[in-house]
Sequence to fold (156 residues):
Amino acid sequence: MEEEHGGEEGLIDDAKNDRGKITKASVKDRLKGAKDDVEATDEREVLQNYLKLAEQEAEANKKIKQAQAALEKRVLAKYQSLTEAEIKTLVVEDKWMATFERNVKTEMERISQRLTGRIKELAERYATPMPALTTEVEALETRVQAHLNKMGFVWK
Fold:
């Protein structure tokens, strides 16, 4: 709603405070200012909807904080009741081994990619067979000899 109506010439643009932010207090102040304005019915409606949404957001945030606090209490209570074997399972198997496994997979992928790159490089390097290279060298050597003979140099 803030993005939709808070831009320049938006319906709640006038509700921004000195810092350019829209707060509950600034919206309430703007509602008081637009109370008697006959042409500001749309603005009042949007401001009232904004206040309702802000209240809902505040309530949701309050519930989230309460749920997080309750979760933290349950976790602390569970920590106290863990046995040594359960702690070892959590730390070694679930945490360390998972990290170790992930690191090994990453290293294997890195090595595999490097090996694949090297294989492609070698395949490109040795794509032409040796007899073909020898034939090409002989043909080029003959051309060079012909050019040298034309220039008056004797080769071989």
